[in-house]
Design a protein that fits this description.
Elements lengths: L2 E6 L1 H6 E11 L3 H8 L3 E2 L4 E5 L2 E5 L2 E2 L16 E4 L2 H11 L4 E11 L2 E11 L2 H23 L1
Antiparallel strand pairs: 1-8, 2-7, 2-9, 3-6, 4-5, 5-7, 8-9
Amino acid sequence: MGIKLISENRKGRFNYEILESFEAGVSLTGTEVKSLRAGKINLNDSFAVIQRGELTWLNANISAYTYGNIHNHDPMRTRTLLVHRHEIQRLIGVTKEKGLTLIPLKAYWKNGRVKLEIGVGRGKKLYDKRQTVREREWAREKGRIMKGE
């Protein structure tokens, strides 16, 4: 099988400096899986927190399944992320640091299961964002110069 990208949070890498990332499984209902197969997910503004010893995913919008019936899911419901206990303990320590948060970076299929890449990040200041744009534009310009030779 392999890996197939469902959605990517591009603003996550722009607004946050990602220090490390890890993979987590997602606990979903049937109609959520069908919506994900159709690519109906919005990762923007979503985040992960540790509540009652569990890693939970908040504000993720998985649209209601178009052909769903009365058992359709709530698009903005809180979802549980599946990680090992020792990873949760490490994340508790990491997120206690000032200014660090857990940001979903991308959702993808891996061997028939939905996985979420979570990044531990620190919010960027405005001047950091400007520097990122400057570096990106310079890389493009450098590519054009090299191609022209």
